[in-house]
Design brief:
By secondary structure, this protein is mainly alpha-helical. The protein has two domains: 50-149, uronate isomerase, domain 2, chain A (Orthogonal Bundle), CATH 1.10.2020.10; 161-466, TIM Barrel (Alpha-Beta Barrel), CATH 3.20.20.140. The chain has helices at residues 15-28, 42-47, 54-58, 63-70, 88-100, 109-122, 133-143, 151-157, 174-181, 206-217, 224-240, 260-271, 277-298, 314-320, 335-345, 362-373, 389-403, 421-441, 447-465, 469-472; strands spanning 33-35, 160-164, 189-190, 245-248, 301-304, 308-309, 328-329, 353-355. Strand 2, helix 9 and strand 3 form a beta-alpha-beta unit.
Amino acid sequence: MKLQPHPDRLFPADPTTRDIARKLHDSIKDEPIISPHGHVPPEWLANDEPFKDPTSLLITPDHYVNRMLHNHGVDLALLGVGQKDFSEEESRKAFKLLFKHWWLYRGTPVKYWMENELYDYFDIRVRPSAETADQIYDQIAERLQEPEFRPRALYKRFPLSFIATTDDPVDDLRHHKKIKEDPDFDGEVRPTFRPDKYLEPAREDWPQLMEALANASGVDTTTWAGFNEAMENRRAYFKENGAISTDHSHADPGTARLSDAEAERIYKEALAGKVSKEDADALRRSMMYEQVRMASEDGLTMTLHPAVYRNHHRPTFERFGADVGCDIPTKTEFTENLQPALSDFGTSENLHLIPFTMDETVYSRELAPLAGFYPSVFIGVPWWFIDAPEAMARFRGAVTETAGFTRTSGFIDDTRAFLSIPARHDVARRIDSGYVAKLVAEHRLEMDEAEEVIKELVVGNPIRAFKLEGILGEQEGVIGK
């Protein structure tokens, strides 16, 4: 059977609305991609080394792909996860495993992403299956030897106009420095300050993390005041090296501030490894309050995606480590949790706060009203478990009537699978085109208004939310309002 993605895929079935959606998508489909939150390793673009093989490019780093195979009994190790030495034979077997189980992905966005990648970038014209696995593997492996498939060439081909990575606060950012100093590459690749583990005082290794933070910042972290000074120091270092945002994920989005005396007491107990869970949570929420305060001062956009039970299956975590597909969403609450920080900093001209969630119940109840009042709040679009067509459409319906079209973040691909970036963004552009087209078909928007709206969703919103005007405002093909 032939592989041939339909040109009207994901558009509304109604012919009138579909025609409008097609026109809207045509107007933005070739806009450069803005990717302000992702997990592509910066060394890929710093060193521009060829990708090793089809499996390490398309399967191993993509937990969206791997978890679906795992739930049918496939060992993650067979997919290259956690394997330092993965032979050509093992790589080919992993590819066959994926395509032998390709029927599992029907109805999922993974199928759409992967088939688009195969069709658009590798000229694959046969459907994935056990019978075609070797043919597809060989064709991809051959193409990966070509200069056009190195990371920097793909950056241009997608095309990307901006991409941010995710980086530890004590990272020296040498890969980012190498990219910036290379005259042969003019792409925008920026670091993101991700301090999660340093804000979790209940961690067994937290005292050692405080030592690492002290060494990186040159600030004594044996006191509460010293901790905050060290955080300010590292945020400034990241900003000096191009960072435009910070990223945070905890059990809840709490920002309740402790008194300095109470924070100092708990901080000392945590350094001694004697802190209770309740006190550790209270200190973490006070740390998050301070992060909002710092963001209101240094201007780094703050993204917040709480309520994920990390490493839900302990044996998998102990064997393979984090970020391999066994994180599970939980319910969350934003209104009360964010009130302390927003009460103090929510109208600061310097603060941009972007809450993300996988708990769809809070979109219309909490996030849209928050963004509908606070000039600092933008709503994070569907991401991770809900970056799927139906969830994206539900999102627009839930938030637009209260917050409008301009208070969302722009699409966030949040991926470690480099080649999936353009496919993921195209899904969002098609679904948003369909949603806006429905408003035109119902005579709720004029066509010229719809064309402006769809451009804002793709270009204007991420530039506005992540303060990219100075970086992308004059770049060809990118015009933010």
